[in-house]
Recover the amino acids of this structure.
């Protein structure tokens, strides 16, 4: 039987994950590369990183020439269809995959599929950035996802940014040093505002550098730090408003809501309870929380096949995904 191979890519600001899926033998191979968010690293570097990941998974599957049925890329930072098309064409050139087999779309579609597969539901993404996306009865709604310059409420970047402001205000004598500011300054070796500015502005990827501090903020929150609690809960309050907006726009009385992204997955037990509590308080209804079923790179394959209306291959892909893509 002829091999049919599908490739999915989860392209983010922190890392890139690709999966190569042989639907005939039902085997999946994965690889990870560095950041490839085109709005952060640029189209050229983004397409080069993704092309390298695609080549690696195809080689691992025994392919000398890249001839997959589809290369589906869920990319953070793809702000419109024309931008996605530029990335698609450049990726085709670098990877050698025909352009009509490459599909590029916003990463929240892959996130949605990673939770709900091909079913309806609402997903909130809390990673380096943030976004909320829902599908119901053939309609889709997106709220947030404005990027770190305009939004990204609840994201790793926002948590890191607010923690760095605590450090700067402490070091500049603008207010009394909080325990969180002291913790981060000591952990990072910051003894002056100049140290903080150098860390951010001389970094190869400032967005990722700032977002990386979210791990310390969340640990401090779990340990009962009051400043960390104020930062985390205020950000979650804003993010929950976006989830509620999608629920209202879709108009379902019993919404299915799932969450994913690195910040959520690394703090799942804590954030699941907090998000559910705040959503129910805001909306006055019971909320059922769904967990991520498959890896986001596999979700990209589902989303890409849905966009191409390839129902036959989607059914085949879902069968393989259940065998080798589960979280």
């Amino acid at each position: 039987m002829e091999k049919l191979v599908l490739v999915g890519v989860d392209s983010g600001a922190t890392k890139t994950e690709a999966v190569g899926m042989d639907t005939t033998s039902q085997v999946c191979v994965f690889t990870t590369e560095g950041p490839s968010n085109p709005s952060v690293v640029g189209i050229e570097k983004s397409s080069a990183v993704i092309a390298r990941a695609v080549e690696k998974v195809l080689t691992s599957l025994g392919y000398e020439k890249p001839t997959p049925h589809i290369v589906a890329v869920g990319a953070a930072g793809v702000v419109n269809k024309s931008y996605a098309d530029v990335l698609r064409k450049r990726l085709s050139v670098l990877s050698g995959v025909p352009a009509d087999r490459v599909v590029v779309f916003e990463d929240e579609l892959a996130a949605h599929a990673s939770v709900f597969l091909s079913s309806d539901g609402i997903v909130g993404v809390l990673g380096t950035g943030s976004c909320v996306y829902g599908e119901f009865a053939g309609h889709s709604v997106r709220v947030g996802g404005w990027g770190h310059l305009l939004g990204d409420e609840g994201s790793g970047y926002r948590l890191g940014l607010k923690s760095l402001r605590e450090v700067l205000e402490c070091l500049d004598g603008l207010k009394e040093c909080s325990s969180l500011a002291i913790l981060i300054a000591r952990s990072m070796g910051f003894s002056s505002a100049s140290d903080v500015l150098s860390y951010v502005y001389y970094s190869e990827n400032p967005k990722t550098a700032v977002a990386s501090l979210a791990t310390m903020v969340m640990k401090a929150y779990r340990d009962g730090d009051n400043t960390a609690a104020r930062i985390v809960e205020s950000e979650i309050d804003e993010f929950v408003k976006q989830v509620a907006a999608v629920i209202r726009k879709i108009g379902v009385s019993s919404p299915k809501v799932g969450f994913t992204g690195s910040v959520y997955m690394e703090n799942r037990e804590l954030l699941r309870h907090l998000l559910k509590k705040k959503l129910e308080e805001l909306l006055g209804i019971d909320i059922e929380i769904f967990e991520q079923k498959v890896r986001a790179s596999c979700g990209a394959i589902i989303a890409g096949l849905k966009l191409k209306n390839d129902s036959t291959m989607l059914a085949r892909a879902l069968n393989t995904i259940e065998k080798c893509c589960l979280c």
The radius of gyration is 20 Å.
